[in-house]
Amino acid sequence: MLKKDIMRAVKKISYLLVLAITLPAVSSCWVQRRSGSLEVEPHAYFRDADQDPASIADIPWRIYFNDPILVELIEEGLENNRNLEIAVSRIRQAEATLAAARAAYFPQVSLTGMVSHTQLSNGTRGKSVLGYPSNQYTLGAAVTWEADIWGKLSMQKRAQYAAFLSSGEYANLIATSLISNIATTYYSLLALDSQLAVTRQTVGILEETSHTMQALMEAGIQTGAAVQQTNALLYGTMVTIPDLMANIQETENSLSILLGRIPGPIHRSTLDEQTADTTMRHGIPALSLSRRPDVAQAEWSFREAWELTGAAKAAFYPSITLGSSGSSGSLVGYTATTLSGFFKPENLIASIVGGLTQPIFAGRQLRSNYQSAKESELQALLTFEQTVLEAAEEVCTILFSYRMSLDKNPIRSKQIESLETAVYFTEELLKAGEVNYTEVLTAKQDLLSAQLDRISDRLEQLQYSVTLYRALGGGLE
User: Fold this and answer.
1) pLDDT of residue 112
2) Do residues 230 and 209 touch, judged by C-beta distance below 8 A?
3) Where does the pLDDT of residue 322 fall: very low under 50, low under 70, confident under 90, or very high at 90 and above?
4) pLDDT category, 4, cuts 50, 70, 90?
5) CA–CA distances in Å: residue 109 to residues 37, 140, 205, 324
6) Bridge partner list, 335
7) Labelling 193: which of 111, 264, 352, 407 has CA 20 to 30 A away?
8) Could you give the percent of the chain with pLDDT greater than 70?
9) Those residues with Cβ within 8 angstroms of residue 310's Cβ, 6 or more apart along the chain or in another chain
10) 452 or 326, greater pLDDT
11) Is pLDDT at 280 greater than 90 in this prediction?
């Protein structure tokens, strides 16, 4: 009776094994999930978006930035920047993890050696309790392998692949941000040089005005108050020069850090030699946003979470394994009761052990893992959507601000032209005694302020051209 029960159980297990092996196509529909790709409307997200597919982001950064000195600095930064090296290290780390996930498909082979010592007893003779020793020596190659029936291993591998691509996009994000930061800092340095030059030029003009006021006072045309007021404006302008020089050195040090070098002087050109792209071609919004590294990284992070959710769901289904731990696993090697002549052919052994495991009770671990994976997937989806919205908002803001900044150029030119004329007229009228000295000082102070504002406008437009280029996904090799 017992023998029949054992045979019936063996047949049942064999049936389940065959059934599990022959149903991968049927079972796949149980855990098959729709593609984890994300889509956005082609012309959504940008205000007043046009249909022109051309984008400044299509221009290689070595061409987009036409200052050869700036190009050399960017190349140096890409070569030496520590943050970029960290990002590249993360890529290598993700690549190693991906290789480990791919290796899960293949059988694991290990060299196994075991020694078993047993003490038996003779039940009919009390004096022979544990009096019969025996040894068993085993040495061979053990094999373990899990059949990927439900796609769990495949989904885990795809999740690691998505993580690998995400790490690549992170490196792209660091690289494009680095290019943008080097360019904007470089332009800031050139603007400070121009502000320093204009300020020194103004100091020279004010020194001449001070001498003129002194002469007019000696001639009895102006008072001592006029001379002192002129000197006060001169000194107030001169005192800004140390601040500008300090800002220049601070900016040089910041740029040196971006370049991965010790803080020091930076070889550079001038602000007047720079040209900015004013076409503001942004292409089709969906395509422009999809090439941004932060958007692509968020998408791959969602894909990783999506695949891990599928793997967590597949954990509910039976697993089929070849081999197990211990001496009863799948093994090819030698076994004997003595080490003498151990490697003789008659001591060869080969065993294959297969098993099917169906989780029944795991303390809610599987269900909790699945629920956690679903929440992680939802978080990744919301993060992707938020990243797209923020990217669109950034592009729209830069486009409008850039246009408005360019609109200031003709007005600023007219303002400076009028102020230069006003300075000339007031100086001539002052010599003739027709105007008060305060009008001359006010005109010169307003001219200096307008000239500095024009430099700020120029810097603003150059930086807008850089940030727009980065915001559209430009800067990728």
Assistant:
1) 77
2) yes
3) low
4) very low
5) 37, 10, 86, 12
6) 138
7) 407
8) 78
9) 31, 33, 151, 155
10) 452
11) no
The number of angstroms, rounded, from the C-alpha of 462 to the middle of its chain's C-alpha atoms is 24
* Cα 196-70-297 angle, rounded to 5 deg: 120
Contacts of the segment 115-123: beta carbons below 8 A, 24+ positions apart: 116/327
- Whether the per-residue pLDDT at 47 is higher than 80: the answer is no
Tokens of 213: 């006021």
Q: What is the DSSP letter of 137?
A: E
Range with the largest mean pLDDT of 93-102, 120-129, 180-189, 311-320 = 180-189
Residue type, position 432, single letter:
A
d(CA 272, CA 172): 31
- Smallest Cα–Cα separation from 280: which of 45, 466, 61? 466
What residues contact residue 358 under an 8 Å CB cut-off, 6+ apart?
317, 318
Rounded Cα distance, 265 and 222, in Å = 46
Q: What is the secondary structure of 24-76 as a DSSP string?
A: HHHHHHHH----------TT-SSTT--S---BGGGS-HHHHS--HHHHHHHHH
Mean pLDDT of all residues belonging to the chain: 79
Whether 351 and 140 have beta carbons less than 8 Å apart is answered as no
Position 457 pLDDT exceeds 70: yes
Structure tokens at 115: 């020694």
Angle, helix 224-238 to helix 152-218, in steps of 10 degrees: 160
What does the alpha-carbon distance between residue 252 and residue 246 come to, in Å, rounded to a whole number?
10
Q: What is the pLDDT of residue 467?
A: 92
Q: Give the tokens for residue 415.
A: 């303002």
In the chain, the amino acid numbered 446 is: D
Structure tokens at 352: 């294959």
* Measured distance CA(396)–CA(402) in Å, rounded: 10
- What's the CA gap between 319 and 317, in Å, rounded? 7
Choose between 477 and 404: higher pLDDT.
Answer: 404
DSSP string over 324-373: -SSTTSSEEEEEESSSTTTTSGGGEEEE--EEEE----STTHHHHHHHHH
What gap in Å lies between CA 45 and CA 283, rounded to an integer? 12
